[in-house]
Amino acid sequence: MLVARSLVLFVLAAFAEIGGAWLIWQGWREHRGLWWIAAGVLALGVYGFVATFQPDANFGRILAAYGGVFVAGSLAWGVLVDGFRPDRWDLTGAAICLLGVAVIMYAPRGA
């Protein structure tokens, strides 16, 4: 159950961070305006809180593992929202990152 909770929190964090950054990108680079930027800043603030709900108490471990989720999530966001088509090297890199997440977060540890 803790692993499932952790995975859901990683997905929520990725959605908030990547979505927030995308909103700021749209607001600034695509000239959609300050409301888009403000929504992005709010989403990034939500991301900052989501990680605090992870069951592991080690900030460094959570953030390090989340980096791998961010990489894979960014590629997925690009596919779903921007029409990006990753090549095999993008997908291989994302898979390696997610393997790193699994090792960092869910490998058995001694007491």
Q: What does this protein look like?
A:
- With 111 residues, this protein is mainly alpha-helical.
- It has helices spanning 2-28, 34-50, 59-82, 88-106.
- The chain contains 4 helices and no strands.
- Helix 1 runs antiparallel to helix 2, helix 1 (2-28) packs across helix 3 and helix 3 (59-82) runs antiparallel to helix 4 (88-106).
Question: What series of H and E elements makes up the topology?
Answer: HHHH
Q: Decide which structural class fits the backbone.
A: mainly alpha
List the total number of helices.
4
Query: What is the count of β-strands?
Result: 0
Organism: Micromonospora antibiotica
Keywords: Cell membrane, Membrane, Transmembrane, Transmembrane helix
InterPro entries: EmrE-like, UPF0060
Transmembrane segments: 7-28, 34-53, 60-79, 91-108
Keywords:
4 helices, single chain, 111 residues, 0% strand, mainly alpha, 78% helix
What are the SSEs and their pairings?
Layout: H1 2-28, H2 34-50, H3 59-82, H4 88-106
Helix pairs in contact: 1-2, 1-3, 3-4
In short:
It is found in: Cell membrane. Belongs to the UPF0060 family. This protein is mainly alpha-helical and 111 residues long.
